[in-house]
Amino acid sequence: xxxxxxxxxxxxxxxxxSGGAALAAAVTAAQxxxxxxxxxxxxxxxxxxxxxxxxxxxxxxxxxxxGGFKDSSEQARTYLRQVLGESYRDDIIExxxxxxxxxxxxxxxxxxxxxxxxxxxPDYHPELPGATDCGRALEVGEFDGAKLGAYFERLRPPPxxxxxxxxxxxxxxxxxxxxxxxxxxxxxxHLARLTARFAIDRLKYSxxxxxxxxxxxxxxxxxxxxxxxxxxxxxxxxxxFLTDPAGSVVGVMAREANGLILHIQAHSGxxxxxxxxxxxxxxxxERPGTRSDHISMAAPHADxxxxxxxxxxxxxxxxxxxxxxxYWAPMSEMKDAHGAKVVFPHIVTDRAKPGIIAVxxxxxxxxxxxxxxxxxxxxxxxxQRRGVARFYLIADRRALNAYGLGLVRARPxxxxxxLETGYLIESGSIPALAxxxxxxxxxxxxxxxxxxxxxxxxxxxxxxRGISSYNRAMGDANAKHSTLAPLxxxxxxxxxxxxxxxxxxxxxxxxxxARVLRTDGSIIRGLYAVGTDMxxxxxxxxxxxxxxxGTGLTFGYVAARSIIERIAP
Length: 569
Ligand SMILES: Cc1cc2nc3c(=O)[nH]c(=O)nc-3n(C[C@H](O)[C@H](O)[C@H](O)COP(=O)(O)OP(=O)(O)OC[C@H]3O[C@@H](n4cnc5c(N)ncnc54)[C@H](O)[C@@H]3O)c2cc1C
Description:
By secondary structure, this protein is of the alpha+beta class. It has two domains: 1-154 and 212-330 and 507-566, FAD/NAD(P)-binding domain, CATH 3.50.50.60; 331-498, Succinate dehydrogenase/fumarate reductase flavoprotein, catalytic domain (Flavocytochrome C3, Chain A, domain 1, Alpha-Beta Complex). Helix content is 31%, strand content 20%. The protein has helices at residues 20-31, 62-66, 73-84, 90-110, 172-180, 185-201, 213-227, 305-314, 373-385, 397-403, 416-421, 430-437, 441-457, 469-474, 547-566, and strands at residues 6-16, 36-39, 56-57, 115-117, 137-140, 143-144, 163-164, 168-169, 210-211, 231-233, 237-243, 249-255, 261-272, 295-296, 326-328, 331-335, 341-345, 356-360, 391-396, 425-427, 492-497, 500-504, 515-517, 523-529. Strands 1, 2, 10, 11, 12, 13, 23 and 24 form an eight-stranded mixed beta sheet that branches. The chain has a four-stranded antiparallel beta sheet with strand order 18-19-21-20. The protein binds flavin-adenine dinucleotide.
């Protein structure tokens, strides 16, 4: 029944958001022939997941077993106990270890999603018992975006700076070929093929249809959801939960962009997958070690509105057992010619490479630059608490040309634009660079002299950079020392970095079936939270590459299975 201003919709499951976790739930529920409605607040689908690396961290997948990687649930448990410490929740980690492989197998069997184990991708605390160098991190296969038909233009594209020619997606392998194209015919041919396909695509599409990383993951799930009849609605703002007299959630009230009020019944469950609270208006309170220059790369609508609503209306519990409220990563930012901000996440491409270091405004190194992005920002925050206000990555000419620095790609001589915008600072000598950056010149000279002496000998006495397998994997395997080289080839370059986050860890407390809990610990029947709406399974720590999406896809699947299993026969 509908009137001019309102309409009633009927469904089995309402899912809010369209990131990886939400779509995993949608596909699983739709596969069981449930009627699924996805309400997306944005006009595009995929959220942060669509611009992510798409990596999953799930121990014990069938790929890992088939690949003969040496690992076990007990070993993974040992590792997670070490990393999570007091944040370790037995029920939820057991559910993750048991159902993660099951979730991925289900999604691969019922969609075109394909994952393979990365040959070398160490855990982020490789020094701890139970850590492994390979077998747990998985990389998504490419997906042909043309298969999405009209939905291709509804898929959230990655930022232009993360694509070649402003529209050609690249994965880790492509970047490897890019860095080697002058040395290897194979790499040259690989890139020539990609570029040719991109040129053809651009005759018909707004960007390349060869989708990789997070875009490929979302596109594969989206295609399956569309094929299984999931109803997608865009620009929808949910205003309240519908509840029955027993307090169970039985639907939502929402408003479409055109003002139409939707009264949506959900006979079996409502799943929140709205991408967490990184964009909350009061978010500074949630991250006390940061400042107003902090940059979040979470999706623009991820303001925690549903988390707050569940708390206000249903007395749902928010947060608990967390070491950090966010998943951190250092960021840099440039204003383009039109004044628009272009953000770069310093995740894998530069910090760990030989000839690049990080310093404070005092000209001092403060961290093992080759540690994970989460640990790197923890060190920045510790410095900020001591009063440090500015941080820079510094490289010499050789390093800049070989690896790039932030937005500046490894393209010798092609960085004039970045110098003009002020993003990249160049100077002929270290003292001159210190002057340009307004940092302590003698301290910077001393720091670089010490670093250079150590790097020449292949050691880092200060921070032990290059000792761990993770450090070495992030470096350059072809270099003399994989993460260390002296900065002695002028000119010298700097890019300012700030703290940033990839998403939030603080979310709605759930049980091991992703059912949302009240502050008194009771279950809110009919309400599920997944992805970053769910309080971090990893207790706000970052054990390895892909832990957010690994747990996100797992508990998206688990939530849908819980709904399916509760439906009366
Ligand atoms: C550059 C980058 C790389 C990353 N790489 C990885 C990686 O390789 N592996 C990994 O595990 N993690 C990675 N992360 C982190 C990870 O991508 C995110 O934390 C994760 O994608 C969040 O997924 P989600 O399903 O919770 O939400 P999202 O994917 O953000 O989706 C949430 C959706 O909900 C919508 N929404 C918001 N509010 C509402 C509302 N009220 N109603 C309806 N819809 C709403 C949003 O518009 C959005 O579309 C990366 C992050 C970044 C920025």
